[in-house]
Aldolase (Nibricoccus aquaticus), 427 residues
Amino acid sequence: MDTTWLHPRDELVETMARIYRYKMTTTSGGNLSILDPNGDIWITPSRVDKGRLQPTDIVCVHPDGKRTGLHPPSSEFPFHREIYRRRPDIKAIVHAHPGALVAFSICRKLPDTRVQTVANAVCGKVAYAPYACPGSEELGKNISETFAAGADCVMLENHGVVIGGTDLHDAFQRFETLEFIAQTLVKAASLGEIKTLSAIELPERTVPDFAELPALPPSNREKELRTQICDFAHRAYQQRLLISTVGSFSTRLENDRFLITPRRRDRLQLEPGALVVATRRACEPGKRPSRTALLHALIYEQNPDVGAIINAQPSHASAFCMTSAELSTHTIPESYIVLNDAPKLPHACVVADAERIATEVSLGKRPVVLIENEGALIVGKNVLDAFDRLEVLEATTEALFLARPLGPLVPMPESAIDELRKVFGVS
């Protein structure tokens, strides 16, 4: 989201509403702030319902300590002020108590972001700050010292998390990504040993430079597909099938051209004009396609029947990607009919290993594959078909987790699978 023209009050309210809507804080928990260039700190108020926060509720604390606003600032203002003092590069702060990160904080463990390249790149260094009473100067000292030592995300013992960023959107994306990784790690821990990436595998490979495509006026079909991709990306975000920093959608246009989501653009804020027309070697002038662009181009080249592609890291399915556990789609008929066997591939980089990955999918036999420490790759006849597979994949894996406390999994017998192959034409 471009926040250039948003007043800090409005930006804080919008961000808190998003955090609250997706259950990453409670009515009374958490606080956000923005540091203005003139030294003013805009911060959420103390004891005001986070679910109904209004711009008029936001408090401004001036450099001389005077404040403007209807309410007192958050009781944890001291640590915001100290972080800004110790880390001049930080211009916004998110503090909240989301469930998975609280689970890590009360077990005194750090979520290991080395399980995904994008998460590791987005979150930066994660560290712990010792416990101190909320709102105390001691807590401010503990947190600010941890930030001063180079941390980007600071876990608080028996408390929650504090995250800094170059602006509020940057801080929010780090926060959301770290919580999503924590949720996935909690699920993966019940499946077995969690696999992390090595120092060689971790660097996020950027997409190669693209030449410029000749500018062409969009056809009505392209306009329709732009709107469709945005609608499904928004729906996927709202259903937590992807988050602001991770996931890509594309659809075939004509000849070797396709439409794909842009790189590092908030998935919930996608608009039709932000999508990128691309080919294997070129894209719209002035735009950056998703890092999966080359992979998608190769899949379209090799599979004329594929009309849409999705890369995503929904938490239940991604838990299988982080462990050696095998995913069984022989659970209910829909799972097998829609997903086929959904095999898991060894870790591969969607940029550097695009040619190898592209050979692993096909609309008939392998419409869904999991990639270790990367996520799901899904193809479909069109965007709706691919999105349906994404939904079914996450619903299937969630059911497998819900079934674990109930007893051993009883898959459909092979005779039932043979019948589904015959009746529904599953390859």
